[in-house]
Structure formats: C-alpha cells, structure tokens
TrEMBL record, chain A:
<dbReference type="InterPro" id="IPR029061">
    <property type="entry name" value="THDP-binding"/>
</dbReference>
<comment type="function">
    <text>The pyruvate dehydrogenase complex catalyzes the overall conversion of pyruvate to acetyl-CoA and CO(2). It contains multiple copies of three enzymatic components: pyruvate dehydrogenase (E1), dihydrolipoamide acetyltransferase (E2) and lipoamide dehydrogenase (E3).</text>
</comment>
<dbReference type="Pfam" id="PF00676">
    <property type="entry name" value="E1_dh"/>
</dbReference>
<keyword id="KW-0670">Pyruvate</keyword>
<comment type="subunit">
    <text>Heterodimer of an alpha and a beta chain.</text>
</comment>
<keyword id="KW-0786">Thiamine pyrophosphate</keyword>
<feature type="domain" description="Dehydrogenase E1 component">
    <location>
        <begin position="40"/>
        <end position="319"/>
    </location>
</feature>
<keyword id="KW-0560">Oxidoreductase</keyword>
<dbReference type="GO" id="GO:0009083">
    <property type="term" value="P:branched-chain amino acid catabolic process"/>
</dbReference>
TrEMBL record, chain B:
<dbReference type="Pfam" id="PF02780">
    <property type="entry name" value="Transketolase_C"/>
</dbReference>
<keyword id="KW-0786">Thiamine pyrophosphate</keyword>
<dbReference type="InterPro" id="IPR005475">
    <property type="entry name" value="Transketolase-like_Pyr-bd"/>
</dbReference>
<dbReference type="GO" id="GO:0016491">
    <property type="term" value="F:oxidoreductase activity"/>
</dbReference>
<comment type="function">
    <text>The branched-chain alpha-keto dehydrogenase complex catalyzes the overall conversion of alpha-keto acids to acyl-CoA and CO(2). It contains multiple copies of three enzymatic components: branched-chain alpha-keto acid decarboxylase (E1), lipoamide acyltransferase (E2) and lipoamide dehydrogenase (E3).</text>
</comment>
<keyword id="KW-0560">Oxidoreductase</keyword>
<protein>
    <recommendedName>
        <fullName>2-oxoisovalerate dehydrogenase subunit beta</fullName>
    </recommendedName>
</protein>
<keyword id="KW-0670">Pyruvate</keyword>
<dbReference type="InterPro" id="IPR033248">
    <property type="entry name" value="Transketolase_C"/>
</dbReference>
Length: 359, 326
C-alpha cells in the first residue's frame, strides 16, 4: 500500500497560562509593546462591557444576551488583524472584533434589546450583522470572498463559527468552495468546548477541528485561543496570504466559554464546576496582563484605572441605549422591500390607523 | 425578427443583462461549460467568462449562501437550482437571509439576487424533478415570486427580476420551455413585477392561473367558447406581490372564478386568491369560487403524473359547475 496523502496540524502558542513565553521566534506583534497594551485594554473593555450587559439582562433591561466571556483574545485578535474594507461575518458574540471595527456598544445592546437598528451599526457598512442561524454566515463570507475575486479586489472575508457550528453543512460548504475556487476566506472556529450543552467531543470524531480544512484543501492551524499574541500572529498570517491570492485558511482557536451559552441558559445543568474553575486558570486576560507586567509595560494601578475608565465608558453606552426610544410601528413594514407593495401598504395603513385610535 | 422559445428567452434575458451590467453573475451546477441541464445558460460562459458564469461545487446550500454573500457585497447574482425539487437546502438562506437582510439591517444591506429554478411536472422526469412549490415562497415576506408562462413574459420578467433591488424567486415552467416560439425583441424592456396579464377577455367566468397551466387553461377557454361560454383568462405571472385588483376587476364583470394551479390544493397560492375574493368580492360573485389544482399528494412518478396535473377536462367541468350554480 502506498500513502495517498498525509497531514499534520500545528498548534500555535506563544504565551502560556501564566503569561510566560514558550517560544522565542516571536512574531512582529509581540515586539510592538504599545499595540499589545492597546489590545489588552480592548480585551478588558470588552470584559467590562460583557459583565454589564449580563447585569442589564438580569435586571430586566435587556433581552436574551450572548456573553463573550473568555473569548476576548480571539475576538480582539480577529478584529485588529483585519482592514476596514475587509468583510466580517460574525456569529453573535464577537463584540471584541466588532468594537475594533467601529460597532458601538450601544448598538450591541440595541440588538439584544429587541431593536433592529442595532444591526444598522456604525462599523463598515459591508460587514454582516449578527447571525443566529448557526454557521450560515460562513457561506455569506465565502460569497463575499467570491465577489472580491470576481472584481479583483485585494480584500479578505473573515468569518467566525463555533465548535458546534463546524458540524454544519454551511461551514463545510464554505471551506469547500473556498478551496475549490481559491477564495480569500479566513474561517475561524472559536472552539469554546460547548455548543449550549453538547461538549466538543460529541460534535465530531476528528482529533482537531482545524483539520476539517484539510479536506477542503485549505491551510489549517490550531491556536491557543486564549493567547492574544498567537491568535493575532495566526490572523495576520491567514489574512496576508488570503489577500495575496494564496487562498483560504481554517484557524481553530481553542478557548473556553466561561459564561452560560446565553443569559437564557444555565450551564450548571450540564457541566462540572471543576472544569470551569480550571478554565479560569487559562483565561486570556490574566496571562496578557502578566506578560505586559513582566515587560514593565503595565502596572496594577494602570489596570485599576483603566477598569474604572471602561466602566464609565460603558455607562455612557448603556445610558444611550436605555434612552433610545422604540421605532415607530411603521418601521416593521418600511424595510421589508425597497418599495412597499400596495397590499402591504394597505396593511401598514390599517395598523397606523389603529395606533392613532389608541393614542 | 427571431422566434424563440421560453427557455431561449431566459438565455436571452441573462445575456442581455450580463452585457448591460457587469455586476450580474450566474452561478449553479452545470451552468458553465454545459450551459445548464436545460440549456438556460448556454453560450454565456463563452461570452462572459468563467468568472461570471460560475460552475459551483455540487451543493445547493453552497449556491444559496454564496448568492446571499455576493448580493450583500454589491453583485447581482442569478443562482440556479437545477430543479425545483432540489431547492429545499436553499430555503434557510432564502428565508432567513436573502428575504430578511434589508429589514434586519434597517436598509444598511440588501440582497438583489435572483433564484431561478425549472419548476413543475409533466416532462416524464425522475423522482424529485417535478415539484410545484411556489406557495412555500409566497408566504415569506421580502421575496418576490415570479412564474412566467410565455417567451415574451419570461424575457421581460427575468430582466425585471435581475434589476429589482430585492430577492426574486423566478420559477420556470419547464413543461412549456419549448412548447412554442414567439417573437421576442432583445430590446432590454422589462415588464412590471406586480401586474397580472389578462390573456383573453371574457364575460361569463374568470379563469385565474399561472405557469404551465396557462396552456391547459387557454385550451379550456377555447373549448368553452365552442359551447358559447365566454371565459376571461388571467396569468398571475407575478404571484408575490399579488395584483389582486386585476383579478377583482375581472370577477366584478364575470361573477365567477375558477383558480387553476398544479401545486397541491391545501394552502396552495389559490387559497390566498380565494380568500381575497371572499374578503373583497363576495357580493360580486354569483357562484362559489372553484379550484382546480394538484391533489394533496406528492406528484406521482411519471406514469401517473398527467392524472395529477390539472387537465382541460377538469377545468371545463369546474367552469360548468360555477355556471350551474347560478
């Protein structure tokens, strides 16, 4: 018997759980201390925002909310590695990436607060909004990448999917067509170990999720998703090769969902406390802070000051959200088509007449 | 002036608009080198290149998702489902994304895409190649649903569908792809996407239909004329949004309505038309509305399929019932 194909999946990590360097071939980003501090500050901002959003839901001021607790390194790395005219197709908890792209925290709150205007956000107008039907966004990113290829634009489409989402046909379809057509697509599987209550081991018999890209003919890499340096290095590499016409890539970011799936979920029903406790030891902010402090680039005092500043910034966003009045009833009709068909216009008028009568 | 078939009119419209608008791309299975299994895209790849006439991997889900992505980024994709029975994997992208993108982003994004599919039965095709399921799309807000029944209407409506800023489901009655030829000038003139076509004037009964059943319905009108019964025939080529005014106006004149479609009866689109007649035209009617439709079964394999599809005899019999009732 001869060998038809072989493959191996590399695992990339620069910072261990304690913030110590585990290799010395450092990428450019690791030497840019100012930027690392800035990215760390963004991670901390996202964490403060996230905690506040959960608190808003618990006090009845926000609808169901999907927390990003524990994903900050992966998300901030993705957002900061992209250029503005690249296209981002997220799932529904990548706030860290989206803030970097100009989406406002108040818009995130508006979306989960039951208002479509949240998705008409301040980020790039070509970025996709939050995508609840699991993994469908992967194909929208692939379609965007196809548009860039047809128009010969040096742009890249980046999408995020979960470990559960990587079981879906949409994910496979997206990476498959990216391989077949050499599309500038970067698909990041944020493997947080849990798809609501179903653990990673029940999603697939494959040893890594990254290797799914092998079958599509893409370059694949598994990364410590809690290590900002590794995540950013991986993203820089993937985006650069995609932009230069070398095709797509699958990155598996290994992390952990420290929160419930959403505020409507109670993870204590299905996963052991010990596992969560152990995951907190590996979380992304702790190690980044330790690394920056070891470089004398950050102090405990700066950390406390920045946290307080984040809380103040978040409060401004929360107030802006809470003060946003509901859309008029007509809004539910007005964007269904570019031009309202006459029978729908009649339905709209009837509702508005009712509104006036009850006003 | 060249005489062309309905399928050739589809090709002509695609070629016209690809030439007219560089953002139009065609994608699907076998649409490129092979020119489509029905030859709807024949010659397009030679003319416009493989980058704009795109053979995709064999996955309808992929075709639909790519289409949404392309359209969201400013292209005008025309996607082909090889047969209507293969469109089901596309449904999530059509319903949750294409139809919804404009409203869920409050107009920031939109999806100017066309999803084409050869539709309906009657060509002795294998299983899953003969479905009529337009009603699954007419209930989805944000979609237009178009079903042409002549070469001229196929040309004008497909041009309009591609130019429309919102997603359009464009279903092509494959039984009459090559039924007859007519003159279609390649002048780039689009037809309106919200107006019914009155194909024949009449005074005793209004026959409302669409797709391949236009053929049987017109034949039934001929047969009825031989018996002194005057039937008006309306082709609802643009199902959604529905031009109910044209139907209502006709029923006001005739007082009778028979709706003919090949999809299953229960919750078929005929039910919507009948409901609107009940709401708005009750006092214009002198007889109950009749429906001549496919049965509430799956369309049978081809030995029985003509038993399933509405026939001239069934239409004539329904008309006679409405006449007997008043």
């Amino acid at each position: 018997m001869s060998i038809a194909a072989t493959f191996e999946i590399e695992f990339l990590q620069y910072l261990d759980a304690d913030g110590k360097l585990v290799r010395d071939d450092l990428p450019a980003i690791a030497r840019d201390i100012r930027q690392l501090v800035d990215l760390y500050k963004q991670m901390l901002f996202v964490r403060v925002f996230d905690g506040k959003a959960v608190a808003l839901q618990r006090t009845g001021k926000l609808g169901t909310y999907a927390s990003c607790l524990g994903h900050e390194a992966a998300h901030v790395a993705i957002g900061s590695a992209m250029q503005e005219d690249d296209v981002f197709a997220p799932m529904y908890r990548e706030y860290g990436a989206q803030f970097h792209r100009g989406v406002k925290p108040r818009e995130v709150l508006l979306y989960w607060g039951g208002d479509e205007r949240g998705s008409n956000f301040s980020g790039p107008a070509h970025d996709f909004a939050w995508c609840v039907p699991i993994a469908t966004q992967c194909l929208h990113a692939a379609g965007s990448a196809l548009a860039f290829k047809v128009r010969k634009e040096p742009r890249v489409a980046v999408t995020v999917v979960g470990d559960g989402g990587s079981s879906k046909g949409d994910f496979y379809g997206a990476i498959n067509v990216a391989g077949a057509m050499q599309l500038p697509l970067v698909a990041v599987i944020v493997n947080n170990q849990w798809a609501i209550s179903v653990p990673r081991t029940m999603q697939t018999g494959a040893k890594t999720l990254a290797q799914k890209g092998i079958a599509a003919g893409l370059e694949c890499l598994q990364v410590d998703g809690n290590d900002l340096v590794a995540m950013r290095a991986a993203m820089d590499h993937a985006i650069k090769r995609a932009r230069h016409g070398h095709g797509g890539m699958v990155i598996e970011a290994v992390t952990y969902r420290l929160s419930d799936h959403t505020t409507a979920d109670d993870a204590r029903r299905y996963r052991p406390d010990d596992e969560v406790k152990a995951a907190w030891q590996r979380e992304p902010l702790k190690r980044m802070k330790a690394y920056l402090m070891s470089l004398n680039a950050w102090t405990e005092k700066e950390d406390e000051d920045w946290k307080a500043e984040c809380a103040a910034k978040v409060d401004i966003e929360v107030n802006a959200y809470l003060e946003t009045k509901s859309q008029p009833t007509a809004a539910m009709f007005d964007y269904t088509w570019a031009e309202l068909p006459s029978d729908l216009a009649a339905q709209r008028e009837a509702v508005l007449r009712e509104d006036t009568r009850h006003a | 002036m060249p005489q062309i078939t309905l399928i050739e009119a589809v090709t002509q419209a695609l070629a016209h608009e690809m030439k007219n608008d560089p953002s139009v791309v065609v994608l699907g299975e076998d649409v490129g080198v092979n020119g489509g299994v029905f030859r709807a895209t024949v010659g397009l790849q030679e003319k416009f290149g493989a980058e704009r006439v795109i053979d995709t991997p064999l996955d309808e889900l992929t075709i639909a998702g790519l289409t949404v992505g392309l359209a969201a980024q400013g292209m005008k994709p025309v996607a082909e489902a090889q047969f209507e029975g293969f469109i089901y994997p596309m449904m999530e992208h059509i319903a949750c994304h294409a139809a919804r993108l404009r409203t869920r982003t409050r107009g920031r994004m939109s999806c100017p895409a066309v999803f084409r599919a050869p539709w309906g039965g009657g060509i002795r095709a294998p299983e899953h190649h003969s479905e009529a399921n337009e009603h699954l799309f007419t209930n989805i807000p944000g979609l237009r649903v178009v079903l042409p029944s002549s070469p001229g209407r196929a040309y004008g409506l497909l041009l309009a569908a591609i130019r429309d800023p919102d997603p359009v489901i464009f279903l092509e009655p494959k039984r009459i792809y090559r039924q007859y030829k007519e003159e279609v000038t390649d002048d780039g003139e689009a037809l309106p996407l919200d107006v019914c076509f009155v194909l024949r004037d009449g005074s005793d009964v209004t026959l409302v239909t669409w797709g391949a059943q236009v053929k049987e319905t017109l034949e039934a009108a001929d047969a009825l004329a031989g018996e002194g019964i005057s039937a008006e025939v309306i082709d609802v080529a643009t199902l959604k949004p529905l031009d109910f005014d044209t139907i209502h106006e006709s029923v006001r004149k005739t007082g009778r309505c028979v709706i003919v479609h090949e999809a299953p009866r229960t919750a078929g689109f005929g039910a919507e038309i009948a409901a609107r007649l009940a709401e708005h035209a009750m006092y214009d009617l002198v007889a109950p509305v009749e429906r001549v439709t496919g049965y509430d079964t799956h369309i049978p394999l081809y030995r029985l399929e003509m038993k399933y599809l509405p026939s001239v005899e069934r239409i004539v019999a329904a008309v006679k019932r409405t006449l007997a009732a008043s």
